Amino acid sequence: MKMNSFSRVGFILAAAGSAVGLGNIWRFPYITGEYGGGAFILVYLLAILFIGLTVFLAEAVIGQSGQSDVSTSFVSLSKSKNKNWKFAGFMVATGLIILSFYSVVLGWILDYVITSFGTLPTEAKVAGGNFENLITNDIGSLIVYHTLIAGSVIFIVLKGIKEGIEKINLILMPLLGLILFGLLMYAFTLDSFSQAVSFMFTPDFSKIDGDALLAALGQAFFTLSLGVGTILTYSASLPKEANFVKSSFMVAIVDTSIALIAGLIIFTYLFAAGAQSAAGPGLVFISLPVIFSGWGTLGNVIAVSFFLALIFAGITSAVSMIEPSLRFFIERFKMTRQKATILCGATFYILGIVALLSMSKSFGAELTFFGKNAFDIMDFMSSSIMMPIAAIIICIFLGYFVDKELLEQKFTKHTSSAVFHTWYLLIRYVVPIAIIILFLNKLGAI
Ligand code: PHE
Questions:
Q1: Which of 106, 223, 232, 384 to mutate to test the pocket of ligand 1 (most atoms within 8 A of CB)?
Q2: Which candidate, 435, 428, 431, 436, places its Cα nearest to that of 404?
Q3: From CA 318, how far away is CA 312, in angstroms rounded?
Q4: 268: closest CA among 211, 221, 199, 349?
Q5: DSSP character string of 175-200
Q6: Is residue 188 classed exposed, middle or buried when 0-12, 13-18 and 19+ CB atoms within 10 A define those classes?
Q7: Residue 422 phi/psi, 5° resolution?
Q8: pLDDT 10s digit of each residue in the chain, 446 long?
């Protein structure tokens, strides 16, 4: 085996580590809460199965065939070997942009890990005030936290795929599993557990509208780390004969299970205190600390564990956001890993500083353009524009510009031809149309 490639288990762990992140533990519960629970989850599961998994398999097959960076892999798999496919490499920039503000959010969470050792706020108003103060006022701390997170990410990826990324996942993923298991066990002992189960699994279709469908689809993409070249780049380090189909299903199963478990934990805790499920993005930062404060010292233990779990989940995702651009510079510009890491690390670090300053009272006005601050612009550009465009390009590429027989061969080495034909149909028609609708809707065109 090459020094710098994953073992198959290492790949599954790293891809699952990428997929499981703030998207599962922070974002999934709050949007499920906003869209009313059961029916949204059902739609979300369908989006994962038919759309997310389809694009996941697509990135995996391109990556494993190309064994290189995004640009090179696109060109080498295309029927015509047309060099213009190298422009698909733009998607690696999306990972860097997401990483800039993801690192800032991980910084907020680091603050929560630390403050959870002390007195927790007993009132929502105080908790809200604390959160607001942290993100708009406490620039010094935010810069320190962002620097610590960015530094850890850079340190890990400098060591490469096997010694850095595979190893950190080998350590953090089991720890994450352990903490979530403990938090779930505690949830079991609370009366509100059954209320959380019925909230999450009794569908009320009156809550589902176009917005909910699009939110489910967007979440499916984000949570599976699609459209930024992460899965493609990780798959390029997957041994050529490894079963990418089975691995992809396993990652999707792990990712979905963790989202559901996180949802069960959080809703049980919320309902135990009679709190609202529709609190939005502040759910984890404002509602939960107040609930934990009612549980005495145990509350502190749970709070620290919970926020640590978020950090662990987030770090393994963060390293996967920078890796596509590293591979890009290493393969195409023959840079050393060190040089590429310095270049990409500095880029996302500086963008992160801009993002965090743009949320502050002191610099917010200067860093707000067209009514959106820099943080929101980076979020919007990446998840609403660049990710969907990349996903459409991936579908069109495989559906129309790659030899069908070749793809069939690659799939049927590992799975039945029925699975291949279903996937092919989805990638040619269903998925691109669904994404185009999502895309236009988000842009406000329909
Ligand atoms: N899947 C990660 C999460 O759920 C986010 C992510 C997006 C990671 C894109 C890598 C690439 O938090």
A1: 223
A2: 428
A3: 10
A4: 199
A5: HHHHHHHHHHHHHHTSTTHHHHHHHH
A6: exposed
A7: -65, -45
A8: 455 788 888 999 999 999 999 999 999 999 999 898 999 999 999 999 999 999 999 999 999 999 999 999 999 999 999 999 999 999 999 999 999 999 999 999 999 999 999 999 999 889 999 999 999 999 999 999 999 999 999 999 999 999 999 999 999 999 999 999 999 999 999 999 999 999 999 998 888 888 888 889 889 999 999 999 999 999 999 988 999 999 999 999 999 999 999 999 999 999 998 877 877 778 899 989 999 999 999 999 999 999 999 999 999 999 999 999 999 999 999 999 999 999 999 999 999 999 999 999 888 888 888 888 999 899 888 988 899 899 999 999 999 999 999 999 999 999 999 999 999 999 999 999 999 987 788 777 65
Taking the CA of residue 225 as centre, how many other CA atoms within 13 Å lie in the half-sphere pointing to its CB? 38
Domain 8-444 architecture = Up-down Bundle (1.20)
Domain ranges within the chain, ordered by starting residue? 8-444
User: 320 C-alpha vs ligand 1 centroid, how far in Å?
Assistant: 8
CA distances in angstroms from 373 to 20, 140, 335, 377, 387, listed in the order given: 27, 19, 34, 6, 20
Q: How many residues does the chain have?
A: 446
228 lines ligand 1 (CB under 6 A): yes
The reply to whether ligand 1 has any atom less than 6 angstroms from the CB of 150 is no
* 417 vs 130: CA distance, rounded Å: 56
* CA dist list (Å): 114 to 117, 301, 308, 398: 6, 12, 10, 47
Residue of the nearest CA to atom 9 in ligand 1? Answer: 225
Q: Against a cut of 0.85, is the pTM above it?
A: yes
